[in-house]
Specification:
Layout lengths: L5 E6 L7 E6 L2 E7 L1 H10 L5 H12 L2 H15 L1
Antiparallel strand pairs: 1-2, 2-3
Helix pairs in contact: 1-2, 2-3
Length: about 80
């Protein structure tokens, strides 16, 4: 599981393209980047697997399945 606080902002209405901003513990690590760059910023800043990085970005977009997987992973890690 990832340690620290992650904040992901997905701007689906950005004029040039869909953009992502990623923050760890309120520190910006990637601002207004593509999905690929957002994945890498998550991996380089503490997210252990690409699967978790994908789920985090999809959850930020509103994907309920990704949110359930992350919650299940969190719940299993706490026991």
């Amino acid at each position: 599981m990832t340690r620290g606080r992650i904040q992901i902002i997905y701007d689906r209405y950005a004029a040039e393209c869909r953009c992502w901003s990623v923050f760890f513990d309120d520190r910006p690590v990637a601002e207004r980047v593509s999905m690929d760059d957002a994945h890498w910023s998550l991996l380089m800043n503490g997210v252990p697997t690409m699967i978790e990085a994908v789920d985090l970005l999809n959850a930020a977009k509103g994907d309920q399945n990704a949110r359930r997987r992350l919650k299940r992973q969190y719940d299993n890690g706490q026991r």
